[in-house]
Design brief:
The chain is mainly alpha-helical. About 50% of the residues lie in helices and about 5% in strands. It is built from seven helices and three strands; from the N terminus they run H-E-H-E-H-E-H-H-H-H. It has helices spanning about 5-10, 30-40, 50-55, 70-85, 85-105, 110-120, 135-150; strands at about 20-25, 45, 60-65. It has a three-stranded parallel beta sheet with strand order 1-2-3. Helix 2 links the parallel strand 1 (about 20-25) and strand 2. The chain is globular and about 45 Å long.
């Protein structure tokens, strides 16, 4: 993995064909670094679901989300609340989504995601080809609890 420093992103943001970035670094101060260096029209997208609330509050505009594959309506409502500045509602929705964000990475990807989809969509296929493996029993329990917390099952 190669890190793209904020100084480099600021230079790239000057190009007319570069309009935004997905930041999955987990480095929250970087959102502000990018926002200040790249200007208000540069689109900052989180690549880490569980950090989306803080990311958006710091100036981000959304998330390239894994969780949205399983809970698209809740994730859209969360992002809409952030975009409108309703952080009370955003926190409430984040509290429903947060355990799911974590559960979907409780085992090797994409096992937990496929399992979660099979729980919310009848007949969704769960087969995985090697080297991918199904999620552990502990991971499945965590996914089930998170889906229940989110009101999805």
């Amino acid at each position: 993995m190669t890190d793209i420093k904020p100084e480099t992103v600021a230079r790239l943001a000057q190009l007319p064909t570069v309009i935004g970035i997905k930041d999955a670094s987990g480095d929250m101060p970087r959102v502000t670094d990018h926002r200040l260096a790249c200007g208000p029209d540069f689109c900052l997208l989180s690549g880490v679901d569980e950090q989306s609330l803080a990311f958006n509050a710091a100036g981000g505009r959304g998330c390239i989300s894994v969780t949205a594959n399983v809970a698209p309506k809740l994730c859209a409502e969360f992002q809409a609340a952030c975009a409108s500045g309703d952080y009370n509602l955003a926190r409430q929705l984040n509290d429903k989504l947060y355990p799911l964000h974590l559960a979907l990475f409780s085992d090797a990807s994409p096992g937990p995601v496929k399992y979660a989809l099979s729980r919310v969509i009848d007949g969704f296929p769960t087969e995985l080809r090697l080297p991918m493996t199904p999620p552990s029993e502990a991971s499945r329990r965590q996914v089930d609890a998170a889906l229940e917390n989110a009101g999805l099952i």
